[in-house]
Design brief:
The protein is mainly alpha-helical. The chain is built from six helices and no strands. The longest helix has 26 residues.
């Protein structure tokens, strides 16, 4: 892979983070814990709150265009990394094809999570994404990277916990911050994974 192309997906993830931070400054207010709160609460608001047409306090959500743009860039960037990584990590043709299909489905449903049917598409995306993450974790454990090995199950557990807590409202007070932790760990892990195997 040429050097400029190698950096594009991580740059895309960085662009998402910048758009995330910017869109958070535009969010009118309201969270699952307090409908009357002002602005974006980094502890209690979810990422998806920024993509709603109406904020949780009832105002028109000015953050939505930038949040949706950032989300689209993120999904495409992660898909690019997965489609690059999977052929390098798995030699079995059927497994490789299956994981590539799962990646496309996970990110396609993920893109649609910016619509009014957010919860439906997150639920549809999760099993395909989880399949890919578990297989990547297995590859990480077999790699010679201590970081990839040691953080693999942290990624699996934090993403799974975030998903379960969101759909069951278990630990409602903590969901917002746990979601952000899960995303941050996952972004760092996938970027390190990408660079570790990009030239192999």
């Amino acid at each position: 892979m040429t050097k400029p192309l190698k950096h594009l997906p991580p740059i895309g993830i960085g662009a998402f983070l910048m758009l995330y931070i910017y869109s958070a400054t535009l969010y009118p207010g309201g969270s699952i814990m307090s409908a009357n709160s002002i602005g974006y609460d980094w502890f209690h608001n979810y990422w998806c709150d920024l993509m709603y047409k109406q904020s949780l306090n009832g105002d028109l959500n000015a953050a939505r265009p930038y949040a949706v743009l950032g989300w689209g860039i993120l999904c495409l960037s992660i898909l690019a990394i997965l489609l690059i990584l999977i052929p390098k990590l798995f030699q079995n043709t059927k497994l490789r094809l299956g994981l590539q299909v799962c990646s496309v489905l996970a990110m396609s449903f993920g893109l649609l999570a910016s619509t009014d049917n957010h919860d439906l598409f997150v639920a549809l995306s999760f099993p395909f994404g989880a399949t890919v993450v578990v297989c990547l974790s297995y590859a990480a454990i077999k790699s010679n990277s201590s970081f990839l090995k040691n953080s693999a199950w942290l990624v699996v557990v934090s993403l799974t916990a975030s998903f379960i807590m969101y759909f069951t409202s278990l630990g409602l007070y903590w969901i917002g911050i746990i979601q952000k932790f899960a995303l941050a760990v996952s972004f760092l892990w996938i970027i390190v994974f990408h660079y570790h195997f990009a030239d192999k």
